[in-house]
Amino acid sequence: MIKTIGVLTSGGDAPGMNAAIRAVVRAALKKGIKVYGIRRGYCGLIDGDIVEMDEMSVSNITHKGGTMLYTARSSEFRTEEGMQIAKANCEKYGLEGIVVIGGDGSFRGAADLSARGILTVGLPGTIDNDIACTEYTIGYDTAMNTAMEMVDKLQDTCQSHDRCSVVEVMGRGAGFIAVNTAVACGAIEVITKEMPYDLDQIAKDMLECKKNGKQNFIIVVSENVGHSQEIATAIQEKTGIEARATILGHVQRGGSPTARDRVVASEMGYYAVELLEQGIGNRVVGMQNNKIVDFDIQEALSMKKPYDEKLHKIAQDIAFF
Ligand code: ATP
Fold this sequence. Notes:
Blueprint: E1 4-9, H1 17-30, E2 34-38, H2 41-47, E3 50-52, H3 80-93, E4 97-102, H4 104-115, E5 119-124, H5 140-161, E6 164-169, H6 176-185, E7 189-191, H7 199-211, E8 217-222, H8 228-239, E9 243-247, H9 259-277, E10 283-288, E11 291-296, H10 297-302, H11 309-317
Parallel strand pairs: 1-2, 1-4, 4-5, 5-10, 6-8, 6-9, 7-8
Antiparallel strand pairs: 2-3, 10-11
Helix pairs in contact: 1-9, 2-3, 5-6, 6-11, 7-8
Bound molecules: adenosine-5'-triphosphate.
């Protein structure tokens, strides 16, 4: 029977991480397992920034964005020396298992720890939804809703001024936030790296819609495409419609998590503790067909996530008239 575990958040923060931490801590304590919070991800594991958690330590946090354990990226952890210090600290605190909440990089680190005898379970925590083994990542829903709210506001001012807004949203290597925001906000076009695009065609479509009475235009651009200012300039030149670029940036990483992020994070955190309780490690928890499942870390890292081409087509087909 496992007696002591740790929990950490690593890589970029994401709304909902706090709900996951709470679930891990409370589920473990309920099962009689001692829990330590490791601050600032693998940095804290190396520096010994490790604190015992009790029921109260995770009280009143589910509605807060960010992560109460803080997060960081550690290059030292990727060295053998750093890994040995991390392992020694696990032994010092009696950590038999660790729940790692983060992205692919964090899971690679978890696999390395696992190879050194510490049971690890990864939870997908990133706004980008770019983790292949899961259809949903903690923080994704909040980020999409934040992007949607921001684009709605831009749309108001675009309508008043007969303008075009080229809005760059986050997503790192993936266009999931972009395509969902485009559909949710009725954008005239979505530009992601996964699909070809043609600025001349977009300009033609815009002018056609303008002829039919449309007054404001939103073009959503995914972070992995970038060049939103250049796209805005080109659109203005080709259409004569004033176009402004807005990069939403890290505003999308913050804020109070949505109900869905809180609930999924809680389910995943609970599931991770159930795995560790059974002595199962080197796993990543994910969601498939709306069910919580788990995969071997290496298998999870080797998977590829298809882009939602159908939604991209829907975004385009229902935008143009
Ligand atoms: P995000 O999606 O938000 O960027 P991430 O978990 O992918 O999250 P990374 O910066 O890639 O973020 O990784 C977080 C930490 O995990 C790194 O700072 C490092 O300590 C560890 N890590 C990353 N890649 C590896 C690796 N190949 N081997 C061991 N540890 C790694």
